[in-house]
Write a structure and sequence with these properties.
19% of the residues lie in helices and 40% in strands. It is α+β, with helices and mostly antiparallel strands. Strand 8 and strand 9 form a beta hairpin.
Length: 134
């Protein structure tokens, strides 16, 4: 009987992992506020699990990024940093392991009010950006 319950718990855990929402991202200067004329671009995937754990990364080309973040604001507006991303080398920026969204951040995500951008020396406010949409 204990084995059956253990198997059910494992199945439930895997079901929770499968419920992660993957968001495919295309970062561009056109999405910045104000828009940035740049040859830089980026792509990546950000995932949010049922327990609000957020993970993933973005990779840029054509830009020497100085920092990257997930911010809170709707498309067409700028907002405060929500989650700083860590540099993983060669234009890659990752969500730190074990990061969880707060309830307010999760609600902002559901409302389309989170975005990721990568900053550069030439564009310290952000060179390329993508809105996180589910």
């Amino acid at each position: 009987m204990k084995t059956r319950f253990a198997l059910m718990a494992v199945a439930a855990a895997f079901a929770g992992l499968a419920m992660a929402d993957d968001m495919m991202l295309k970062l561009s200067g056109d999405n910045e506020v104000p828009p940035v004329k740049t040859a830089a671009s980026g792509s990546g995937t950000i995932s949010v699990a049922a327990d609000k754990t957020i993970s993933g990364s973005v990779t840029t080309t054509g830009v020497q990024g100085t920092m990257a973040h997930i911010h809170t604001a709707e498309a067409g507006k700028n907002g405060p940093v929500t989650i700083p991303l860590k540099a993983d080398g060669d234009g890659k920026w990752s969500v730190p392991a074990g990061t969880k969204l707060t309830d307010d951040q999760f609600e902002a995500l559901k409302a389309g009010k989170l975005y990721v951008n990568v900053h550069s020396a030439a564009n310290p406010g952000g060179e390329v950006r993508a809105q996180l949409t589910k």
